[in-house]
């Protein structure tokens, strides 16, 4: 009960205060309509300060000089691709086809004009049995260079070890191509040409 009485008293006081405020506002409004306004009007003008803009010349930075590429390694040139042996098992191998030697005629490349010259030398197929066992060796094959520049009558002069690489070496020799020897404007056969073929496993 005391709270309710306090609330009623406060509300009554607020209501009376509002009535009094409204009455005073009405009186002031009436006087404002009849009396001329008193006072002065002030105009405020905002003056902008001079702005100084600093210009910075931003030149793009020069890109760094590219590093010089490493010199390219000279790649060995092969006359023809080396055939892969069947069942090589992922092992790398190489068969080195050596230079030609003609019996009684010296090296073929040392001859003068018109001497026979090798054009194509096919690397032999590495025998699968030797590759699986890791066997290396060489074969010296002797043959005849025909007037057409092909190889005929190849046979084995020396093989180490024997009975493994001979057939592969002779098959490769039959695929060799030569520029035939020219004597008095005529192509001539060259017999007794020897070639050393080396079989070596890389890695």
UniProtKB/TrEMBL annotation:
**TonB C-terminal domain span:** 111-203
Does the keyword section mention Cell membrane? yes
Cellular localization per UniProt: Cell inner membrane
Coiled-coil residue windows:
none
Check the record and name the InterPro entries matching this protein: TonB, TonB-dependent_transducer, TonB/TolA_C, TonB_C
What family name appears in the similarity comment? Belongs to the TonB family.
Q: What is this protein called?
A: Protein TonB
């Amino acid at each position: 009960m005391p709270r309710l009485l306090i609330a009623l008293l406060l509300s009554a006081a607020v209501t009376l205060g509002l009535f009094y405020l409204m009455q005073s506002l009405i009186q002031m409004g009436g006087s404002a309509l009849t009396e001329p306004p008193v006072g002065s009007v002030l105009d405020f003008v905002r003056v902008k300060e001079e702005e100084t803009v600093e210009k910075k010349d931003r030149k793009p930075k020069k890109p760094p000089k590219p590093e010089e590429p490493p010199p390219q390694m000279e790649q060995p040139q092969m006359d023809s691709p080396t055939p892969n042996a069947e069942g090589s098992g992922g092992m790398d191998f190489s068969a080195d086809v050596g230079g030609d030697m003609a019996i009684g005629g010296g090296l073929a490349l040392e001859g003068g004009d018109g001497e026979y010259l090798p054009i194509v030398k096919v690397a032999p197929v590495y025998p699968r049995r030797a590759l699986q066992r890791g066997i290396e060796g060489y074969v010296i094959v002797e043959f005849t260079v025909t007037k057409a520049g092909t190889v005929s009558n190849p046979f084995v002069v020396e093989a180490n070890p024997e009975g493994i690489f001979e057939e592969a070496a002779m098959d490769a020799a039959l695929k060799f191509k030569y520029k035939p020897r020219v004597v008095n404007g005529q192509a001539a056969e060259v017999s007794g040409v020897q070639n050393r073929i080396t079989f070596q496993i890389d890695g």
